[in-house]
Amino acid sequence: MIQLPRDRMDQVLKRFDLIEARMAAGPSADEYVKLASEYSELQEIAGAVKALRAAEGEQADLEAMIEDRSTDAEMRELAEADLAAVAERIEQQQQQLQVLLLPRDAADEKSAILEIRAGTGGDEAALFAGDLFRMYERYAAAHGWKVEVISASEGEVGGYKEIVASVTGRGVFAKLKFESGVHRVQRVPETEGSGRIHTSAATVAVLPEAEEVDVDIRPEDIRIDTMRASGAGGQHVNTTDSAVRITHLPTGIMVVSAEKSQHQNRARAMQILRARLFDMERTRLADERSESRRLQVGSGDRSERIRTYNFPQGRLTDHRINLTLYKLDRIMEGELDEVVDALIADHQAKLLAEVGSEG
């Protein structure tokens, strides 16, 4: 039998009802936005708690009917059949609530910064980086998220040496955070006349997008340099002194943005810098906890090879959870849900195991 934290369930319902009452009382616009955000976060859990308690009440009524000696045989038989169905429903609801009540990553609801860099493999690695970006673009579109390219360095024959984009929407980071790492591709390059399979790689980093309230960047801690933009092959090169490089002096983190507007470059560079500093702090806090509490799928190390895309066999393999799927063409079209959901389920299973061991 699943043991649920009943006190925590009571707290959720009490808070949910309080927020509902405060929203109905007509608060200020700013307060309403904050309340609505928290209401949205608690709505699914509160609904699950109420559904479980309704089912438990139904179970108690059926048990009382069965135990009542005045209940005739036919009614008792029907009640016993209903009781079995209710018990099965309660077990499913308890499992759902167990997952919903797990400790949550505070960054899960945030948008994300997606960074893809070509690794080993030359031109083929840049082409693969481009393929990965299009895969994530299509996945984002299917979820109603907005993708905006912040900076891009194109490859000599196509694709990208590096591309950085913001992916905006609710819960983006929760879905994409396990994509960080080295993605390896095995395929025959278009330029390969002999048909030899080539192996190359690209590195993906997914950072939670940070607001100004999440990261305090003091003016004296940054140096801003303006410089002339340049690019590969003379394409999309901005010849005015509009590129902006921001250096965060305490950490040495350097961000460059080289689009047409200097003002926009500064804003975008600060956006990326906040995300990297926020991610650095999250990593530091994770490192302070014992290794048994570091529950990322794999190590979370972006130098770790996490996935192989084998085009000749139409196969994708995620090495962290031993998942192999033979529908690579559909996955590259953005049908990533099966992979993402498997990674999230593995993460939740590890959390449940930890919570159980602590209990």
Q: How many discrete domains? A: 2
What class do helices, strands and sheet pairing give? alpha+beta
Low-confidence stretches: 231-240, 289-301
Report on the biggest sheet. 8 strands, mixed
Calculate the terminal CA-CA distance, rounded to whole Å.
Answer: 14 Å
Order of helices and strands: HHHEHEEHEEEEEHEEEHH
DSSP summary, beta strand count = 11
Number of helices: 8
The top level CATH class name of the largest domain: Alpha Beta
If you compute it from the alpha carbons, what radius of gyration comes out, rounded to the nearest whole angstrom? 26 Å
Oligomer: single chain
The mean pLDDT is 83
**If strands are numbered along the chain, what order do they take across the biggest sheet?**
2-3-1-5-4-9-10-11
Q: What percentage of the residues does DSSP assign to strands (E)?
A: 15-25%
Please sum up the structure shown.
This protein has helices at 6-24, 29-67, 73-100, 122-142, 172-176, 262-288, 328-332, 337-358; strands at 112-118, 146-154, 160-168, 181-187, 198-208, 222-227, 243-248, 253-257, 305-310, 315-318, 323-325. By secondary structure, the protein is of the alpha+beta class.
3D architecture notes:
- This protein is an alpha+beta fold.
- The protein has two domains: 6-100; 112-350, Alpha-Beta Plaits, CATH 3.30.70.
- 46% of the residues lie in helices and 20% in strands.
- The chain has eight helices and eleven strands.
- It has helices spanning 6-24, 29-67, 73-100, 122-142, 172-176, 262-288, 328-332, 337-358; strands spanning 112-118, 146-154, 160-168, 181-187, 198-208, 222-227, 243-248, 253-257, 305-310, 315-318, 323-325.
- An eight-stranded mixed sheet has the order 2-3-1-5-4-9-10-11. Strands 6-7-8 form a three-stranded antiparallel sheet, covered by helices on one side.
- Strand 2 (146-154) and strand 3 (160-168) form a beta hairpin.
- Helix 1 packs across helix 2 and helix 2 packs antiparallel against helix 3.
- The longest helix has 39 residues, at 29-67.
- The protein is flat and about 90 Å long.
- The two termini are 14 Å apart.
- Residues 231-240 and 289-301 have low confidence and may be disordered.
